[in-house]
Automatic annotation (TrEMBL), chain A:
It comes from Marivivens donghaensis. It is found in: Cell membrane. InterPro entries: ABC_transp_permease. The keyword Cell membrane applies. Its main location: membrane. It is a multi-pass membrane protein. It holds the Pfam family BPD_transp_2. Keywords: Cell membrane, Membrane, Transmembrane, Transmembrane helix. The keyword Membrane applies. The chain crosses the membrane at residues 6-27, 34-54, 60-81, 93-117, 137-158, 186-208, 214-233, 240-257, 263-282, 294-312, 324-342. This is ABC transporter permease.
TrEMBL record, chain B:
This is BMP family ABC transporter substrate-binding protein. Keywords: Signal. Residues 1-25 form the signal peptide. It comes from the Bacteria. PROSITE patterns: TAT. The keyword Signal applies. Pfam families: Bmp. Residues 28-313 form the ABC transporter substrate-binding protein PnrA-like domain. The lineage of its organism: Bacteria, Pseudomonadati, Pseudomonadota, Alphaproteobacteria, Rhodobacterales. The keyword Signal applies.
């Protein structure tokens, strides 16, 4: 095995960040009862504006701010159409993606092959001094930390504040929320605006840090993965973090497995996953917490798959076609969707709200 | 309602008129290009476009140039090519391997339009194929890579598992091995020609696993950027375009696709009425494969060695696939002094001895 697992973990964090940022924004939007399928379009718009402004002004912060603003402005078009003109959300969202792809391509003409600004790394004091682990895990650029901080923040606001309660009420039953006197449309517009900003930020992370350059179609479907992760996470912030890192992890892992030529890395990854699943399953069984049947189901599935993998390895399996690995996150999403029969989705998700009805 | 119907009829009549009577009344030759990526990808497509523009410059007002970029390989390509043929194009260049079947299909419907498909092997009366012997350039790259690596680990970002890519890997490996018996190749397939994010991730994965020379068969400059940002010295090669903006380090040389002379030739043939279906496969000697300047980061003796190899290949004195060469499983492919024939090379689907891993199917 040629790679340091800690280095791999750091790569996973970077690879997951764009999807994580876009997904947390979309989670808030969907929690307010709006389905915005335009994530990909807002992301790529953010990517091109972030690149151009960041490069033009020489300031990474300027680039990210411009990207967030661009994404948010684009989302306002979607908000105006769906909330005020009551258009169909699915169709409008898809339209927004197509519009964003075209717009970015237009704006990005000529903005190629130049050097982007460098985004400085931000070592966390104390933690980054931990031998071998610290310099790698706690020495990222600020956006990586911001994305994790955002998860915590969204969780806190959504489940520990009155504003979060109103947001969720709007998403669960907009008529009841309206009857109670909450401004449904305003709440949703704000959520959409936030979601657009996050998507724009996510796009700029790709064009300013991860790649970092501008070419047409640079997001390459990351927006759709973000949408899938929101479902995978059952609309819960911390599970979203796990989902995004899982997706990013598989992406980075399959590249490294190819380069490495052995399955040693996969052994470690699956071993860790199995241990995590076992811990979840055991604690759930002991505390008999009935509220989370999904966790149990997932843990059992992971444990069974790990055992199967272990047996195959013992039987002498040396390689695995990478196609199977690339498939994994999508299979997991489908499994979760099937398991979610008693759906956790916001009840008013995707429904049109009109105050008169 | 009535007015709407009227408008619709009018519109369809206009479209029918536009489609039915191909606009070849004027004496301009209409030349169409179908690109797989955006014209500013920094690599493959950009260079095709660049060459096409040189062709346009050469002919000036005599040609009418149209192109469509970012056309996905597969069924959608058929639509794009058909549209271009309907638009009155006299000759259409389809510039990616995956356009092979769509090109053949559309060509059957438009016997009067000439088609030129890059890097494929299916021909018809009105379909020519053209490609470059990129593996000759890969031999030069392999030599440089084998000499420049400190860690003896060379990374290779492979795109789509087709013979052209496999030839490149084999050629680079053989020549790296020749100058440095300890080299090891790490190959990552990304199954796409252009995906900057994936290319960057792949380059980073290779660098993190100790590779200090990265070869790419993908279209963007993302791997160059990743190598530039890496700690320590990592060397790369420009692909399809010179990518000189990343020199003198990480980019130490490049393979440049010189399509312009061919394009000028073929369009001229259409103008003269002498066009016929041909199979062109030219290399360094004919000028279709260019070796970008070897940068100052390379020691002089290594540079001289690589240039000597380049000149030998150009002069036809040396073929990069000259035996003895064994297949990956150890069986004999080419005996001592035997040279691979074009038929075998065109369908090459195995690694040579010494490369680890499988070619994805």
């Amino acid at each position: 095995m040629d790679i340091n697992p800690i280095l791999l973990l750091a790569a996973v964090m970077v690879a997951s960040t764009p999807v994580l940022l876009a997904a947390i924004g979309e989670l808030v939007v969907e929690r307010s009862g709006v389905l915005n399928l335009g994530v990909e379009g807002m992301m790529i718009t953010g990517a091109v504006f972030g690149y151009i402004i960041g490069h033009g002004s020489g300031s990474a912060i300027g680039g990210f701010a411009a990207a967030a603003l661009a994404g948010a402005c684009l989302s306002l078009i979607f908000g105006f159409l769906t909330q005020f003109l009551l258009t169909n959300q699915t169709a409008t969202g898809l339209g927004l993606t197509l519009f964003g792809l075209g717009l970015s391509s237009l704006v990005g003409q000529g903005a190629t092959a130049t050097y982007p600004v460098t985004v400085p790394r931000l070592p966390i004091p104390l933690l980054s001094d931990i031998p071998s682990l610290g310099p790698i895990l706690f020495n990222h650029d600020a956006v990586v930390y911001l994305s994790i901080l955002l998860i915590v923040l969204v969780w806190f606001i959504m489940f520990r504040t009155r504003a979060g309660l109103i947001l969720r009420a709007t998403g669960e039953n907009h008529d009841a929320a309206h009857a109670l006197g909450y401004p449904v449309r305003l709440v949703r517009m704000l959520a959409i605006f936030f979601g657009g900003g996050c998507a724009g930020l996510a796009g700029a992370y790709i064009s300013l840090v991860r790649v970092p350059q501008w070419t047409d179609g640079i997001t390459a479907g990351a927006g759709w993965i973000a949408l899938a992760i929101v479902v995978f996470a059952s609309w819960k912030p911390f599970r979203l973090l796990i989902g995004a890192y899982l997706f990013g992890g598989v992406t980075v892992l399959q590249l490294n497995l190819q380069a490495d030529g052995t399955l040693a890395l996969l052994d470690i990854a699956i071993g860790l996953l199995a241990v995590a699943a076992a811990v979840v399953w055991l604690t759930r069984s002991i505390t008999k917490k009935a509220a989370a049947p999904m966790d149990n189901l997932l843990s059992v599935i992971i444990l069974v798959l790990s055992v199967v993998y272990g047996l195959l390895r013992l039987a002498g399996m040396q390689t695995i076609p990478i196609e199977y690995l690339s498939m994994l996150p999508y299979l997991a999403t489908i499994a979760v969707l099937v398991g979610l029969r008693a759906s956790n989705a916001p009840a008013s998700l995707g429904k049109t709200f009109h105050a008169s009805t | 309602m009535k007015r709407r119907t009227l408008l619709a009829t009018g519109a369809s009549a206009a479209i029918a008129a536009a489609l039915g009577v191909p606009a070849r009344a004027q004496d301009k030759t209409k030349v169409g290009f179908i690109y797989v990526g955006p014209i500013n990808d920094g690599g493959w497509t950009q260079h095709h476009h660049h060459s096409a523009m040189e062709m346009v410059e050469h002919f000036g007002d005599a040609v009418d140039f149209v192109y469509q970029e970012s056309v996905p390989e597969g069924p959608d390509a058929e639509r794009a090519i058909t549209q271009m043929a309907l638009g009155g194009a006299d000759i259409i260049f389809t510039t990616s391997f995956g356009y092979m079947d769509p090109t053949i299909n559309v060509a059957a419907k438009f016997p009067d339009v000439k088609f030129e498909h890059a890097t494929g092997y299916k021909m018809a009366d009105n379909v020519s194929v053209y490609s470059a012997r990129f593996y000759e350039g890969r031999a030069v790259q392999g030599t440089l890579a084998g000499r420049m690596t400190q860690s003896n680990k060379i990374g290779y970002i492979a795109s789509v598992p087709i013979p052209e890519v496999v030839r490149g890997i084999n050629s680079a490996y053989l020549h790296a091995k020749k100058v440095n018996p300890d080299v090891e190749f790490k190959i990552i397939w990304i199954f796409e020609w252009l995906n900057p994010a994936k290319e960057a991730d792949a380059a980073k994965a290779l660098i993190e696993q100790g590779c200090d020379v990265i070869l790419q068969h993908t279209d963007s400059t993302a791997p160059q950027q990743a190598a530039k940002d890496a700690e320590g010295d990592v060397y790369t090669f420009g692909q399809a375009a010179d990518m000189a903006e990343f020199g003198p380090k990480p980019r130490i040389s490049s393979i440049i696709d010189e399509w312009a002379p061919y394009y000028i030739d073929r369009v001229q043939a259409v103008m003269d009425g002498t066009w016929s279906s041909t199979n062109t496969w030219d290399g360094i000697g004919a000028g279709m494969v260019g070796i970008g300047e070897i940068s100052s980061a390379v020691p002089d003796d290594v540079k001289a060695e690589a240039e000597a190899l380049r000149d030998q290949i150009a002069a036809g004195e040396y073929h990069p696939f000259t035996g003895p060469i064994n297949k990956q499983d150890g069986s004999v492919w080419l005996a001592e002094g035997e040279v691979a024939d074009d038929g075998t090379l065109a369908g090459l689907s195995f690694y040579v001895e010494g490369i680890d891993g499988d070619i994805p199917s």
